Predict the 3D structure of the following.
Amino acid sequence: MSLAWKVTVTVVLFAICAVAAVILIVSLLGTPPTVDFTSQSPGQPVNVTMQTVGTFGSGNHPTWVSYLVESPQGPWVHTTVFQVPAHTRINVTIYNYDSGSPLRNQQLGQVGGTYGNVALLNGKAFRVIDSNAGNGVAHTFSIPSLGVNVPLYGNNSNANLCGAAPCTTTSPHKIIRFSFTSPGSGNYRWQCFVPCGLGFLYGNGGPMSTLGYMGGFMKVVA
Ligand SMILES: [Cu+2]
């Protein structure tokens, strides 16, 4: 084998390895991390805490709306993927830091699929939010395959709202709580149904169609 051939083969092999490495890194970066809630004692209710923010404030898309999940160890994680045990009571708390607007589909103002078909807004039970009144609805937490839908009442858009995640309770916020029973094992898609992707066609692009912002997966493990 001539020297020229050896050099060519080496360069080609190196190029293939470099491309493979880039593809691997991009695919790893593209999947938001999973926050695991399965290490609690078996049979005990699992508490899942999340927040919604009007603008994430940093990273690749600082202007996008986003959900975050609080890990059981404390820190907020920029993800919409979390893992819970099967057939277990899941107590969800969502801190909403975003403003709201009227819903295009009033059906999404209705609470469904939760214990008693109710949710709590700052401690007060509600079954429906009339998004044409008051501050409107900011986002929903919906798991279509389980019939779960909870509208998140908005904050006053004239207030000094938090613009960089993770937000803290010193900023204006609404606390929404509800519970449901996790199903059998599987991956369950959940998402917000308010077309809140500002600046995208019909509001459904950008954060509405990107894992880690306005939709994700509830992984249920037996
Ligand atoms: Cu949303």
